[in-house]
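Subject: Protein entry, chain in single-letter code together with its fold tokens

Category: Structural biology, sequence-to-fold work with a learned token vocabulary.

Notation: Tokens come from a learned vocabulary of local backbone shapes, not from coordinates.

Start of record: The labelled sequence and token lines come straight after this line.
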Amino acid sequence: LNYVASEDIHIYSIDEAFLDITHYLKYYGLNEKELAIKILNDIYHETKITATCGIGENMFLAKVALDCLAKHSENNIAYLNQELFHKYIWDIKPLTEIWGIGKNIEKRLKKMNIHTLRDLAHTSLEKLEKEFGIIGKELYEHAHGIDDSIVSEVRNYKPQAKSFGYGQVLFSDYNYHDLYTILLEYIDEIATELVLKKLTCKLISLGIGYSKEVGGGFHRQMTLPIKTNSRTVLRKAFHKLYYDNVQDLPIRRLDIRVGKLDKEDFVQTDLFDKNSKKEHDLFKAIGEIKNKYGKSAINMAISYTDKATKIKRDSLIGGHNAE
């Protein structure tokens, strides 16, 4: 947070994060590598931990640069563009070295006589989608060094302070149906925050990371027909985004976000529920109670179900038990 705004950081795991530095280079008067060196030096001085950095034109290239090259470079920094990607990454074996390809996907690719990203890039999109569904398109694009997921649109994405969300590396693998419980918990938290801050949103996004054994994941977004802070509307929208995109595979990471925030007004913020003021007042009251007595002071009934995580999350501080 010393170098970029929180909105331009995507926490990937306990020890990895993505930073969109596109609009900060001119401000600091540095190029990508110079800024990376400065950040890594600060990390070392503050923590005595030697960090590594992958730089790329999108999230995928940055992650592959980190995983496959940075740890072997002299200054712990590696950079990938399309040309360097083809030169250094296309023929790497095994394919499990590549972000998003787990053992299960690698086995299925081998059956198709695909052993490298070069092989994958020369396989038709139609054939991959037939075998892998939605993941097939992602595999095809990654083989060509392309990443169009929301947080990865480094060149086209214009960072905005007007967005927020929640994300979690799950305590264990979740299946397609159980994960929906956690999604609902997050929607409740977002609705509460929107109402309390007197804001509405017009954009939602969903990010899924499948387990290491499966590999892969995605980020998708949806523009809402009207601006809203209604839990009912948000649940309907996220429900569609979820069931249109999530596959029934083991899942280890969930991220949801709302954007295009605006000041709240009551010129019918909810076309689907004309009685939304009652719901609005309820979530305002919940938010006020949480602010006064703590975030664990009140929970929705869903948080007491077996697969929910909010109560456990609230008991943790910095990833450790609060006791």
